Structures are given as C-alpha cells and as structure tokens.
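Suppose you are handed only these lines of text.
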Amino acid sequence: MGLDFVVKVARKRVEAEGIVLLDLEGEGVALPAFTAGAHIDVKTPSGAVRQYSLCGPPGQPGPYQIAVLREAAGRGGSASMHDALAEGDRLAVSAPRNHFALSEAPGASLLFAAGIGITPLVAMADALHAQGREFTLHYCARSEARTAFLRRLRERPYADRVRFHFDGGEASRQLDIAAALAAAPDGAHAYVCGPQPFIAAVRDGAARAGWPAARVHFEHFSGLAADTSGDGSFDVVLSRSGRTVRIAPDVSITQALAAEGVAIDTSCEQGVCGTCLIRVLEGEVDHRDLYLTPEEQASHTQMLPCCSRAASARLVLDL
Ligand code: FES
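From them, the structure of the protein bound to FE2/S2 (inorganic) cluster can be written out as follows.
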C-alpha cells in the first residue's frame, strides 16, 4: 500500500448525523484526476489506513472530497477522522484507485446505495449525467437526518432520477429490489454499495431475475468477520523461486511473505478491494474475501492473500 502524497484538510463540516464531509487539497501538487467509483487510501489520525470513495464530481479540478461515517463498532479509524482531525491538518493519502468503475457498455445504469454506500454512487450519478447517460439512483437510508448528500441530490439537475427510500428501520418500508430491477431497461448494469446484507440482497435479486453477474457491480466497505479459532499452519510455495514459506496460524500470507522480503501490494487488508489478488497454481483456498465471485472462488485459481488462507496443506502461488 503506497501513500503517495500529503493533502491538507481545507474544509470539514457535518454532512448528516454521524457523517463528516472533508475537502482535501493538494499541497504543492496537483491532485490526480479520478473516475467515478474511485477511492483513496487515507492514513487516519489513529494510524490505521482506511479507504474512502471520492464523492466530488469526477473529471473536474478541485479538492478531493470524502465523507466519513463514524463507525461505532469500528476499529477507531473513522472515529479519529471525526474527533482528532481539524481544518488545516495534513493527511497522507494514496493516488485514486478504481475497482468499481462504470462500464463503458452502452445502456442504462441502476445505482443502489444504502447509507454511507452513497459515496461512490453520488460520483457515478454526476458522471452519468455529465455523459448524458440514462440512470436511476435508489438511495436507502433510515431517515433524512442520516442521509448524506440529501440536499445536493435534491438540487442536482438529475434530481428526478433519484429515489429516496427512508425505511425508519422497518422492513415493510424498504426498497423493493425486485421491482427496481424489473423496471430497468434490458441490458442495464447495476451498481451497488452499502452494508454487506444490502449488497447480497441486490446480487441475489439480480441473479434470480436472470441478470448475468457481469452486469452487477458492487463494492464492500469492510470485510467479513472470519472465525479464526480453527486456523492452523500451512505452506506457501513461491513458484518462481521454488521457496517454501510456512504460514503460522495468527499471521496472514501477506504478512508472512513480507517478513521474508516478498512484498505484495495491499490496501484494505480485509479482502474487499482486490489490490492483493494473486494467481494460485496448486492447492485449495479457504476464501475469506468479499471480492471474488462464488464461481471465481470455486475455481481456486486466484486468491486474496491479505485475508484468505489454505484449505489444503500447501498452496503454490504465482510469485
Ligand atoms: Fe484489499 Fe487484499 S488488500 S483485498
């Protein structure tokens, strides 16, 4: 994971209940352009590195904008962005990376956001509107008070394409995902971001309605809480050098290989971003990521070594 430059917090304001919006300016450098769906890694004041989607309009000069939800059950990274960061402070960040890009295929787009999952999708809505492409944004939140970008989306020229679903925590008032998918034109692509059950519900609904998986794009914010109590040791063989590295129960493959001088690029370290993806030549993987599709996982030909382990005594990796 590389932190490429330092930015200054030019503006910090409350965007919604529990959510702050930060404008980040380049310090003596022009910030690289980004595309809708991109994120940056941010070294938070707690020291933890977190990923935040860029939610300003893509393709326009100006500060990077990120929205940060205070995660009550988090590991302190988001809380430190709320409590220990003031305007004028500096942050180390990475260049933008995009694992959640809009398809260039013609046709309509259906955007599904839940809660803070709106952050990449608000940039996508801006980009699709700027390109004159057809889209509908479904935005689910508990209440208006907790809805980031409420005013922005109501004032955008495409406000009539945004459907807010405030459920107040009641299932009966939740978005009818099947109906939203059924209303999409043939060949549409769906993009979904939010809590894991929401993503799973949209993916399941799309699969049941016969949508090919390639037309359903998703991005998770945090990884699975894996049960590590039964973890054992296993061997990793590096095919290019023939070296074997023993992976201890409480160490990830990326950590063990880094200690042996074999660096694999990482970012989220939770199996959600895909940065550390490597090819597997032999062996069975105990997949613990949210990045690969079930079909990709079942093929055992690739893995995310920041979190996944071996289901066999050894793995031969294309390293
Ligand atoms: Fe993000 Fe491994 S570093 S999936």
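What can we learn from it? The CA atoms of residues 195 and 303 lie 22 Å apart. Residues 266-269, 271-276, 289, 291, 304, 306 surround FE2/S2 (inorganic) cluster (CB under 6 Å).
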